[in-house]
Specification:
Strands 13-14-18-15-16-17 form a six-stranded antiparallel sheet. The longest helix has 13 residues. The protein starts with a strand and ends in a 27-residue tail after the last helix. By secondary structure, the protein is α+β, with helices and mostly antiparallel strands. Strand 8 and strand 9 form a beta hairpin. It is 13% helix and 19% strand.
Amino acid sequence: MRGPVRHILLVGALLVSLTSSGTDLAAAAQAAPSRVIPYGRAGDIPVPADYNGDGKADIAVFRPSTGVWYVFGVRVVLYGTNGDLPEPSDYNGDQQADIAVFRPPNGSWYLLAPSCDPSYPTVCIPPPPPDLDCTDITVRSFKVLQPDPHGFDPDHNGMGCEGSSPLPRPAFGPAIDGYAAYDPQVTCSPTPKPGTVYFRDLVLHAFSETSDSGISRGCDIGGTSEHKEGRAWDWHVSSFSQNATAKQALNWLLATDKYGNRNARARRLGIMYIIYNKRIWGAYRAQDGWLPYACSGVTGCHQDHVHFSFSWAGAREQTSWWTGKPSPIDEPVGAVPTPWSGGTLPQPIG
């Protein structure tokens, strides 16, 4: 007669235990009460323990490849690295399991200090230092409250790290370029300028499902346009079917950096204004945000493309994105300097 046999069912994570004293294990499994809770993936290490002090073990897994602990219904914690052995236990006697790892290469134990920044209530991320970016953590789309010391929520919509951006995030210091003044086209020089070409290639590389609608325009076509000076680009992306893609790029450009500099990447790249989906954002009116754009038709209303116009400094790669040194407020090269100061400006054509 066989003794009791205890079985642990694994479906990507620790699920449920069944007990049988007979030889027909399948029949025992069907007869016994059971519950299947899909939680985890192949390669995860089960680490059940009482993480919230309610006297009951919580389903949890440690993912060695990323060093992330996933505690079902409790929290997500980044602690450890590939090769660490998870060893949760109540090390301080507070009736809650503490997250800890043992690192075999150096024979050291690492215990997570009970310090989770309150700006991130659903995940446990320690406060700075060090300052972290979304590229430093693996969790995505988590709740963020202000003051958000790590800057995980640049568009201030209450969600952090909403998917990994394919656009670059080079590190800069707190010094930043001034906002570009309004400097409309006054010359005929349609050869694409290097900053414009760089930005076009950067965006198309990041979003390969979109396309190029052109930089240059003949000087005898239409009215005033920075296309005729090679410092404007039209990005072919549809507001009807690719709006999320366009918004991802625009949010990346206009996000506030970790030093509190608003519209940081747009300023560093020397962007003068943007037109998209019946709205316009101007660096010279940045305090007003997006404004209505008078137009008609899909193309005229920029619903099938985004228009970017650059300052001369941006078009010539003379801003901090390339030089590392902030440029001042970009002064117009043309005959009439017109930085906005509260009066009425002509509507750019794009």
